[in-house]
Specification:
This protein has 9 helices and 8 strands. By secondary structure, the chain is α/β, with parallel strands linked by helices. Strands 7-6-5-4-3-2-1-8 form an 8-stranded parallel beta sheet.
Length: 223
Amino acid sequence: MAALITPLHAPVIRERLALVRERIAAAAARAGRDPDAVQLLVATKYVALEDLPVLAQAGVTLVGENRAQDLEAKVKAHGELFTWDFIGQLQSRKVRAIVPHVRLIHSVASLSALRELERHRDAAKADLRVLIEVNVAGEQGKAGIVPHDLDLYLERCPVPVLGLMSMPPATADPDQSRRWFAALRELAHDRDLRELSMGTSQDYEVAVEEGASIVRLGTSVLG
């Protein structure tokens, strides 16, 4: 379980958000992109339930949770403050608990999850959409489908697929992630998929340069 970052202070987070947005804008400019095409998502796995209003006070509007149990509790307490996504590993047995609360699931990566999405479509939000998680680097033991299976998942997914998500191999040099971000972009482009969830606090600027439409940030915003 991720260590919580506490206490949180709205003025500090507001300053961090401004800096991150400046860096996103600069990265977008380098790539000839519109910075408004990049959504900034804050990962709430680092945030205690009682601290969530601080994020709203600081101007955070889009959040992503990693665990179904935490998602349910946080939405029950503060659901009206944010737009909610699910960004953690999607276990098929947790699909039912997740789909009523989120606009987007970033991590569809198993046929069993597709079956559960079909079973629980009636419980889902009307505008639920998903991203397929792709293991572009072919790392052993890492979540995500192999690129070769992508068309099968697009064909079988029972809810609309907006795009793709990936986590590149861990590295101390953000530029080492560039080729994996580019590979995901090409997979999406070839299939006319518009959303790319890629880039975290360590490498989001490179991800934006390579086409990210959603960056998932934690420590760069929260401290």
